[in-house]
Amino acid sequence: MIKSIILPSLKNALITILVVGLLFFNSVNTAWAKRPPEIRNQQDLDLEQDMHGQDLRGNEFVKFDLNGFDFSQSNLEGAVFNNSKLQNATFKGANLRDALAYATDFTDSDLSDVNFTNALLMESNFEGAKIDGADFTDAVISRIQQKELCAIANGTNSSTGESTEYSLGC
């Protein structure tokens, strides 16, 4: 008699514990899952076409489509733009010191008077970009990029006083 009363109660209790445990651990796993870098801070960034003059130091724009965005006069020191599309974007007078822009597409972008000091720009595309007055001092670029950029180098950076040609080692 006691066996018939305890067994169903014990069985129901074990099933309840199992279901609650599965639900709990499933939600904990989701919360602990590492988000990929391309969406890590998208919710935190209030991106608009006009990002002119903003303090965006250290933000990650990995695999973002930022075609035509205006980042002119913005502080993007230490920002990450890996594999991003920045065609026709405006960075005029922006600070990209220590930025990381690996394999980023700057096609037809306005990069005039940009400070690229110590930036890592390997494998990025600068075709048709305007670089008048840009400072590439100690920026990491390939020899091919250097030759292409030297062919259009012109002007002096207004904040660092460095000529574009000299900073590229032309």
Structural class: mainly alpha
Write down the Rg.
26 Å
- The sequence of SSEs as H and E is HHH
Give the total of domains: 2
What is the CATH class designation of the largest domain?
Mainly Beta
By CATH, the topology of the largest domain is Pectate Lyase C-like
Question: What's a quick, concise take on this entry?
Answer:
With 170 residues, this protein is an all-alpha fold. The protein contains 3 helices and no strands.
Characterization of the model:
The protein has 170 residues and is mostly helical. The protein folds into two domains: 2-33; 36-170, Pectate Lyase C-like. It is 26% helix and 0% strand. It has three helices and no strands. It has helices at residues 2-32, 143-150, 164-168. It is elongated, with a radius of gyration of 26 Å.
Features:
170 residues; mainly alpha; Pectate Lyase C-like; 2 domains; 3 helices; 26% helix
Detail the topology: elements first, then pairings.
Layout: H1 2-32, H2 143-150, H3 164-168
